Amino acid sequence: MSQNPPNLRPDLARAIVPDERRAGQPTIGMVSLGCPKALVDSERILTRLRAEGYAISPDYKGADAVIVNTCGFLDSAKAESLDAIGEALRENGKVLVTGCLGAEPEFITGAHPKVLAVTGPHQYEAVLDAVHKAVPPSPDPFIDLLPASGVKLTPRHYSYLKISEGCNHKCKFCIIPDMRGKLVSRPAHAVLREAEKLVEAGVRELLVISQDTSAYGVDRKHDMAKWKEGEVRAHITDLARELGRLGAGDDLWVRLHYVYPYPHVRDLIPLMAEELVLPYLDIPFQHAHPDTLKRMARPAAAAKTLDEIAAWRATCPDITLRSTFIVGYPGETEAEFQTLLDWLDEAQLDRVGCFQYENVAGARSNDLPDHVPAEVKQDRWERFMEKAQAISEAKLQAKVGQVIQVLVDEVDDEGATCRTKADAPEIDGNLFIDEGFEGLAPGDFVTVEVEEASDYDLWGRIVA
């Protein structure tokens, strides 16, 4: 789990709100670490504060206090969170801590006893109470106006849409259920209303996120909610269909993240073939050997998964499959790792990430026997990534000559940085345009012909 890139960190002008502070207006800064789900939490906190009359500072020195939204998924992420808290204390002095690591307050205060308050994940009211105590509000109802889309920490043209909290899985390497609890799905009409407001505010891509997107609505027994002239069921298939209908033609992309390969996922694929949602699935397979998967306490049906992948591609040939894997899990033998490599050869996934296993305080996997030595984990990671890179390179080379639609993310003096339908922001590749880009702006859709490919990125030219 990594820190947000520099352009998403509030101490480097991340919060996308006008920096027009009135005299004496209380001001809060935000450092948001970890995954997109935490980023959504940060946006909600800042939106609430903005509605109460607080200004949002683009740097530490301009803030009366700083909120650090932490990550606690891995020990390395915990260390990064502690570093960020220390930096905020040095630069500002008044720091409030929230997020996943906030579930271990003694761990934080033991390292940084000067923090003003510690709250856990998605404890919005507790965060607000702590801010009120540290920096009392002073709203002016005639001046303080909240942007219609709220406060965003992402570019204006795309937004993360969180549909649930928590997770019902009991993977041995993960402590997310301990930190964030069991699955709690948002009502379908609430998700759709938020999405509609985002689209009305100019968002061109909705990135649907949760801990387990395909389980959406299970805890609600897939109840019905009023929406427009009818009703909508709290089920990922129905929700995805309605989200796709918010856009006109190719004016909106809907991208699904963190989808577990349950049997009902096959019902999403026709929506992709119909272009209601992007032909893109982000599925955390984690491994392919059944014994490794059993030690992880995950579904152990890798062979059946290959059949599902083949069926998805038969229905939607253009589908992009992204996944993450863990190498060096306790007990992983060379034979088990080789099975993973062979499975990857057969699956031919488009986008792949890989992590070396590491212990996480509180995870049950820590107590498993036969932990893999660090040098073996490194070797397996390198071999895995070499194969994944070769697959990616071949798939991207096959795109040369194709005419495709891309979404512009950034334009500077050297060119335009764009993404295809196969690329999620910050985790996948890019398509670059270095000629005739002068009239483009972030959020534009443009049609290009792919001219060149590398291991992970594309280059193209604008076509009429």
TrEMBL record:
Protein name in the entry: Ribosomal protein uS12 methylthiotransferase RimO
EC number from the UniProt entry: 2.8.4.4
Subcellular location field: Cytoplasm
PANTHER family: RIBOSOMAL PROTEIN S12 METHYLTHIOTRANSFERASE RIMO, RIBOSOMAL PROTEIN US12 METHYLTHIOTRANSFERASE RIMO
Note on how the cofactor is bound: Binds 2 [4Fe-4S] clusters. One cluster is coordinated with 3 cysteines and an exchangeable S-adenosyl-L-methionine.
HAMAP family: MTTase_RimO
Domain TRAM: from-to ranges: 397-464
Record-stated family: Belongs to the methylthiotransferase family. RimO subfamily.
GO cellular component terms, semicolon-separated: cytosol; ribosome
Cofactors required: [4Fe-4S] cluster
Originating species: Gemmobacter lanyuensis
Catalytic activity: L-aspartate(89)-[ribosomal protein uS12]-hydrogen + (sulfur carrier)-SH + AH2 + 2 S-adenosyl-L-methionine = 3-methylsulfanyl-L-aspartate(89)-[ribosomal protein uS12]-hydrogen + (sulfur carrier)-H + 5'-deoxyadenosine + L-methionine + A + S-adenosyl-L-homocysteine + 2 H(+)
Alphabetical UniProt keywords: 4Fe-4S, Cytoplasm, Iron, Iron-sulfur, Metal-binding, Ribonucleoprotein, Ribosomal protein, S-adenosyl-L-methionine, Transferase
Binding positions for [4Fe-4S] cluster 2 per the UniProt entry: C167, C171, C174
Role: Catalyzes the methylthiolation of an aspartic acid residue of ribosomal protein uS12.
Domain of life: Bacteria
Residues covered by the MTTase N-terminal domain: 26-136
Stretches assigned to the Radical SAM core domain: 153-394
Stored Gene3D superfamilies: Methylthiotransferase, N-terminal domain, Nucleic acid-binding proteins, tm_1862 like domain
One example of a Gene Ontology biological process annotation: tRNA modification
InterPro entries on file: Elp3/MiaA/NifB-like_rSAM, Methylthiotransferase, Methylthiotransferase_N, Methylthiotransferase_N_sf, NA-bd_OB-fold, Ribosomal_uS12_MeSTrfase_RimO, rSAM, rSAM_horseshoe
Keyword Zinc: no
Gene Ontology MF term list: 4 iron, 4 sulfur cluster binding; aspartic acid methylthiotransferase activity; metal ion binding; protein methylthiotransferase activity
Binding residues annotated for [4Fe-4S] cluster 1, in chain numbering: C35, C71, C100
